[in-house]
Amino acid sequence: MAIETTISTPLPAGVQPQSVIVLLHDHEAYIRTTCPQLISYRRLSGPSISVRAPVGEPCVFEITDKRPTGQTTYKLTVTNQAEGVDSLVEGKAPTGTMAIKTRWRVKSDGNVGNVLEEEIEIDSNMITKKMIKGTIEKGHPEYHRSFMAQATKGKELAS
Questions:
Q1: Burial level of 123, CB count in 10 A (0-12/13-18/19+)?
Q2: pLDDT value at position 154?
Q3: Long-range contact pairs involving 88-94 (C-beta distance under 8 Å, separation at least 24)
Q4: Cβ neighbours around 55 below 10 Å, total
Q5: 81 bridge partner residues
Q6: Phi, psi (deg, nearest 5) at residue 66
Q7: How far, CA to CA in Å, does 86 sit from each of 68, 111, 126, 153?
Q8: Is 3-158 a CATH 3.30.530.20 domain?
Q9: pLDDT of res. 49
Q10: The pLDDT value given to residue 156
Q11: Model-level pTM?
Q12: Distances (CA, A) of 31 to 9, 143, 159
């Protein structure tokens, strides 16, 4: 059985929701932001990296990044959605296979305004699940802040 967690970050004043969605739809920016130990990536299917994929069309990448135990290669599927992006990481660790599904959405929250919300579902063996969940809950808020900073910078460049 999979375990789930949610990370939610308010959009700073002046950051337009559409700016964050555009960044999420930029798969190169998405990969570089969410894979901080990136060594390389290549597109396996979907439109060219220079072309934005239409909403609902999955793009599959092979990602290689650094881990404490060396480097690892896994498959990443990214699918643009109207309010954000869905992703699926499928990999093999020494302890077995894992799948991490995320749903990134820019939403309106009545209490704080607009938020970037990431719903995460982790499926692997019991020991690995808890370790992955802890790593995600520790690292992903920084990815959210990075998207906000990029959206702010994009706004300044457009001015």
A1: middle
A2: 63
A3: 93/124, 93/128, 94/69
A4: 12
A5: 84
A6: -90, 145
A7: 27, 25, 24, 24
A8: yes
A9: 67
A10: 42
A11: 0.88
A12: 19, 11, 26
Q: What is the pLDDT of residues 51-76, one digit of tens each?
A: 688 888 999 999 999 877 778 899 99
Low-confidence residues of the chain, pLDDT below 50? 155-159
Amino acid in position 122: I
Q: Are 65 and 39 in contact (CB under 8 A)?
A: yes
Question: What's the Cα-to-Cα distance from 63 to each of 23, 101, 133, rounded to whole Å?
Answer: 19, 16, 20
Three-state DSSP state, 67: strand
Give the span between the Cα atoms of 128 and 72, in whole angstroms: 15
Distance CA 37, CA 71 (A): 9
The 8-class DSSP code of residue 47 comes to S
What count of residues does the chain have? 159
What are the residue ranges spanned by the domains of the chain?
Answer: 3-158
One-letter amino acid identity for 112? V
> How are strands ordered across the β-sheet holding 113-123?
3-10, 113-123, 96-109, 84-93, 70-81, 58-67, 38-45
Using a 10 angstrom Cβ sphere, with 0-12 exposed, 13-18 middle and 19 or more buried, the burial of residue 138 is exposed
Tokens found for residue 145: 């802040």
Q: Which two tokens stand for residue 102?
A: 């995320």
Longest Cα separation, the chain: 50
